[in-house]
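User: structure tokens for Metalloreductase STEAP3, please.
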Amino acid sequence: LSFNSSEHGCGLGCSCLKVRLSMRSHESRVKNEIESVSCTMPDEMARPLIRGRGGGGSRHLEASVSEPGAPVIGILGTGDFSRSLARRLVASGYQVVVGSRAPKRSGALFPEEAEVTSQMEAANQADLVFVAVFPEHHSTLVELKPALAGKTLVDVSNGLQIKHDGPSHAEQLADLFPESFVVKGFNTISAWTLQMGPRDGSRQVFLCSDSHKAKSSVMQLCRRMGFVPVDMGLLSSSLEIENLPLYLFPSWRIPILCTLFLFIFFYLYNFTRDILQPYIKSEKSVFYKMPIETVNVTLPSVALVMLALVYLPGLFAAFLQLWWGTKYNRFPNWLDRWLTGRKQFGLCSFLCAVLHAIYSLCLPLRKSAHFKLLNAAFKQVKAGTEDAWVSEDVWRMELYLSVGIMALGLLSLLAVTSLPSVANTVNWREFSFIQSTLGYCALSMATLHTILFGWDRAFKSDRYPFYMPPTFLLVLILPLVVLLGRLALFVPCMAGRLRQIRRGWERSRHIRFTLPDDDCHNGLEDDKSDEH
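Assistant: Done. Predicted tokens:
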């Protein structure tokens, strides 16, 4: 190094040298610290995110994945349900051990954190065991009886058909393992729901067992996995739980059959009036109307009748309570089933209404509509008439479409509110207002829509081919009966009495709540003065 002899130059050179030496010293200290830390700490970043699966079919659990103190969960079986269950349990912080007849072959199908081993070893290690094998193979697990003694067994099996008489698969499993505690559950949860999480499927898990302790442990496991356990009582309820996944729309059967019956009836009725009658009478072929036009006339008929069937059982129930003078008499079974199926009736009505709107939008797109328009224009030119404006028809169509759109909008609101996710966000008063008050408004709008469609056609003789009245007259019968019945319940004398009955009043017995004394030990007195 050469330094300037001048005072200024020497000062500058010394300062630069001090800075450089200081920086080199700091870099040396940092480098030594990094090297010392790298020698003492494991190389975590060098580990691959996805580890290989070589080296045997059995893998030990990592303590860093499972929470300390968590029970070891065993799974007997290596099917689709077992793999999804293992993934969900590992994600929930449980130690999982899977018992397989061929561990080396099945090991690659399960997550890294789950140990795949033999069935005997899995039974020995686990504290709680899921029996995920078909019920006809339960007998092959008898050799595990000593290892499973005193442990909780969760039966997740389902049958192939609905059984009305026992024993259930869970009860048969309990007979094979009398020293274990059998819990029936998770059979209503699909492998897809387990793999994707409870947000994309049903959250409820139905459980039953004769052991309260075993059932409580499985309920705790359900909650930790993100599901909602539902206690179904003793193991004798397992047959009902096993039948649940086998039902095919049990609450939809009658509404769907009713919808199909009404559709077939009105379709044949419209076909006879609008297609068959012109062909028989004047040999005029209009069979092209069958796919679109006849269907479009049939769908609103079904929608309006189905909507009336939603509110008709409520009127029956109200008039029965008025007739009986009490709310404590049980409704007939047919009325009870009808009342519980009103939601399905309403959704079928909404489906038909939406299809009617789509079909109506497609009407001008048909070739037949184009030809009719051209023929009408040609006839107008040929007749020499310049103005074909008919105010009555224009007003009828404007009102008819406007009211129909409002009816469809109200039906859409009813359909959306019937969804459980939406219904849970409103209180009972709001839900009752939407489903009852707005529901009757939708029925009124749909009825008015049909009346405007018919207009004065009911009074024209040419509208009665084969002495068959227009379709809209048949459709209006039931909705008008329902609306008139509802108006009758608005009469003050009937509305007041019905309100009293639903608050506990009885015609033959007027109950008063009093303080108990020596003569009246239950606090209830019968008031005979009100009997009539």
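User: Anything notable?

Assistant: The longest helix spans residues 7-40.
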